[in-house]
Amino acid sequence: MLDRLTTRARQKKWSPTLTDTCVLCNNDSETIEHLFFKCYHARRVWQVLSNLAGIPFMDSWQRLLMWMGKWIQRKSLYWTFIKLIWSAAIYHVRMKRNNRIHQQVFRTEEAICEQVQFDVKHRILGFAKLNRHLYLSP
Ligand SMILES: [Zn+2]
Fold first, then answer.
1. pLDDT at 137
2. How many Å apart are CA 27 and CA 70, to the nearest integer?
3. Is 21 helix (H, G, I), strand (E, B) or coil?
């Protein structure tokens, strides 16, 4: 999934005159690995969310996939919770990058973590409402 996202490093392959520097930190080539795991801004988001969720800090896509492989067959509330956190975090880091490029808006890592928590909370509440509706429906 992530390897299909447009990054500046990918764009530079098609248009060599474009810059591939990460728009968030201006320190490295904007690859998937950098944008979601190596960039200071993403690392800060993952550190906060990992601490909140009680999961190991993932510092690479490869490490995340290996860790997910241990859990992927499980259908527990905890695993659903973890997947919601990851998907929301990836979405908001991506939005942070896009907002920076297209709207010159800069959101802090703390704001992203709060938004991820808000999204996860409301997704879980949505599941609870759906379950209540399914069990209470005639
Ligand atoms: Zn960066």
1. 57
2. 33
3. strand
Q: Which two tokens stand for residue 41?
A: 């801004």
Range of the domain at 125: 2-136
Which two three-digit tokens encode residue 57? 């800090």
Domain total in the chain: 1
The residue type at 97: R
pLDDT, tens only, 81-109: 888 888 898 899 999 988 888 888 888 99
Q: Three-state DSSP class for 111?
A: helix
Distance (angstroms) between ligand 1 centre and the Cα of 32 equals: 10
Q: Which pair of structure tokens corresponds to residue 112?
A: 């992203």
| Ion ligand 1 — residues with CB < 5 Å | 22, 24-25, 39
